[in-house]
Amino acid sequence: METLPTATSNAFGRDLGLAQKAARSGIVPDRARAADTHWDLWHSFCHSLDLDPTVENFEDPVTLLQVFAQRYRTGAIAPRGKPVRSRTVEDALRSVGQTLAMLGAQDPRLNHVGRVDFRLQRQLKCYSKEDPPPDRVKPIPVHLLRYVMAVAFANTAVANQANQATADMIVLAFFFLLRPGEYTAMKSDTTPFRMQDVQLFVGGHRLDPLAAPLATIRTATFATLTFTSQKNGVRGEVIGLSRSGNPLLCPVLAIVRRLTHLRENNAPPSTPLAVYVRPGDGLTKIAPADITTMLRTAATALGPSIGFLAKDISARSLRAGGAMALLCAHVDTDTIRLIGRWRSDEMLRYLHVQAEPIMRDFAKKMLLDGAFTLLPSQDVPMF
To answer: What pTM was computed for the model?
Structure first.
């Protein structure tokens, strides 16, 4: 590069910087910050051993990674000073390896065929076996949502806009199987759906949700959301639902209520659905904590009859609740995965056999259909 003309060298450096920035922006901000933390820990770990963090001249860097992983696992060098799970250790090792690769060095985790060294694999496998059971989100049942809507809309005063807006976003999250970043304001690589992402229909007639009279959009029978930057959504893909038959707990009417409120307050088309307006306050965003608080308040009021405690649920539970409702309705898992945009069997972690309707008739079915015979092999004598 030293022999290149100054202008050419400067242009190369500029474009390299932009490329590196793009590579860093390819992951969500939280993961980028976590990777920075992991690298800082690795740097300090190597410094304590008087070693170069690139470990280029170290004969067997895997042994260093093993000790780093062990200390991270026990909490000796973990950010909070507490033991961590195997997946957290694995993430830290991956961050170190990928950071070194970004710097042009060799990823020390990998062997000569590009696979994670078997010593690290076995070490992580041991940690995984020792881990406590994973914390699975509890799905939200419909009767809890009915309670949420009844309380939120019991008072239609303007001062209650916060509760009504939060309740409407709870409805959308449940029916559309949304992630928190898709229906609340949070730090994420995804964005909540906006007014301009909505389409409304009356039968086969398409309405303009941003310009049609409010009285007209209130007659909508079908609503769709268009994916733009939402996680795991195919850009431009449209997913829609019809009315549920309930005047409050309905995805179409929840969208209509949000559009009506925002249009009455002259919100631009780019406004997220997850906001509301109170006189003198301007636009107020709905955060995941608002959703969690409302759900937990309802769970506390309903008590143990729902089968779990208020602390067991959060904003993430709505996606699981929608998936469980579909499963209990005997919708096949492939269809549920398509609706929820799951790209793997990770969806199964959201589904619980604890749901009573799923297991209700299994004992009877096992007795009815369990009387079978096997096709005999050659070793079975004839009779």
So the answer is: 0.73
